Amino acid sequence: MEMPTTRAQPPPAGGRLRRAFRRFAPPVVRAAARAIRARWWRLVAPWLPRPTAQAFQLALPEPPASARRVRRSGPRGLLRSRPLSTVWIDVPRSLYVGGVLRRQGLAGYEPAPVSVFLAALAALKCRLAFDVGANVGLYTLLGAGLTPTRVVAFEPEPNVAAALAWTIRLNGLSARAEAVAVGDREGVAPLYISDTTDASNSLNADFRHATGTVDVPVVTLDDYCGITGRWPELIKVDTETTEPDVLRGAPRLLARRPWIMCEVLPGGAGAQIEGILGPLGYRWFQIADPLPPVERQRIVGHETLEASNWLFLPGQPPDGLWAAAGEWRQRIGTSPPTG
């Protein structure tokens, strides 16, 4: 089976010379070229004629001591850069999450789940994470910008996926945008475009009232991992009530016992997730302000978004995980809206 051609592509810049450079140039030379390209785009971006975009710099917190790591050795380690102090966000003005970040900064959108996500990456010494249902890619940008983790983002809405791919390139991040939905079987399915916000688009026809649909390719995580050879240590899932389908499409991946950060909304999703992860020995921790997360016996969708995110762990949380999350939360709370 072949993967569909689904990668969200930024503006094309290829050619034989570029491909030859990527293949034969030494790692140090490639790293220098990447750094120059990233700085160039950051300087030029504010002046480009993009009338439908909201381009701004998002200030990032300094990682706490518990999250700092020495770069990995070898050629791959040479491509890792220091944590970023800001990232450029350049997305259409109509996108809800982009607008919240522009007005309020990191403190305005899911600060507690973001803090737990960053602490989890450090605790795992995570090499690869998946951001399933990425939207504008906040978790992708932070994971790749503040840690050595490589992040693959899955976002099915074509315009949002293209904006995310452009933002990844703009910041020179070790990340990739895939313009696909994730489910329990491969194929093509209608994505229902919510009349509430672009953050509420879903494969579930009954989730929100839709203004229309767009047919999108659907992959399973097992198929994607098997074809690419990439198996993540952490998965973040936010697909607007179809999270159980994402997990049902990943039995081989779940056998590796990755950490899972997942949104659970009211309805039957919680019981379905318990049925999938319970036999594998997972434990569930509900994330809410103030931290730390609280371990629960049952997974129940919260009526408000303030406590709708969970961390599913295949065992006891490691020492220092919640303290590190608390440090991130404190730093995010004091970050200015823009850089």
Written overview of the protein:
The chain has 339 residues and is α/β, with parallel strands linked by helices. Helix content is 34%, strand content 21%. It has helices at residues 16-24, 27-44, 75-78, 96-104, 111-124, 138-146, 158-170, 221-228, 243-248, 251-254, 269-277, 321-333; strands at residues 53-59, 86-92, 128-132, 150-154, 175-178, 181-182, 187-194, 210-219, 234-237, 259-263, 283-287, 294-296, 309-313. An 8-stranded mixed beta sheet has the order 5-4-3-9-10-13-11-12. Strands 6-8-7 form a 3-stranded mixed beta sheet. A two-stranded antiparallel sheet has the order 1-2. Helix 5 packs across helix 6 and helix 5 packs across helix 12. It is globular. The termini are far apart. Residues 70-80 have low confidence and may be disordered.
Average pLDDT number: 86
Shape: globular
| Spatial gap, N to C terminus | 45 Å
CATH topology: Rossmann fold
Q: How many beta strands in the DSSP annotation?
A: 13
Strand residues, percent: 15-25%
CATH H-level superfamily title:
Vaccinia Virus protein VP39
- Unreliable stretches: 70-80
Rg calc: 19 Å
> Can you tell me the CATH class?
Alpha Beta
| Sheet with the most strands: spatial strand order | 5-4-3-9-10-13-11-12
Number of helices: 12
Sheet/helix structural class: alpha/beta
What is the secondary structure topology, with strand pairs?
Layout (H helix, E strand, L loop, with lengths): L15 H9 L2 H18 L8 E7 L15 H4 L7 E7 L3 H9 L6 H14 L3 E5 L5 H9 L3 E5 L3 H13 L4 E4 L2 E2 L4 E8 L15 E10 L1 H8 L5 E4 L5 H6 L2 H4 L4 E5 L5 H9 L5 E5 L6 E3 L12 E5 L7 H13 L6
Parallel strand pairs: 3-4, 3-9, 4-5, 6-8, 9-10
Antiparallel strand pairs: 1-2, 7-8, 10-13, 11-12, 11-13
Helix pairs in contact: 5-6, 5-12
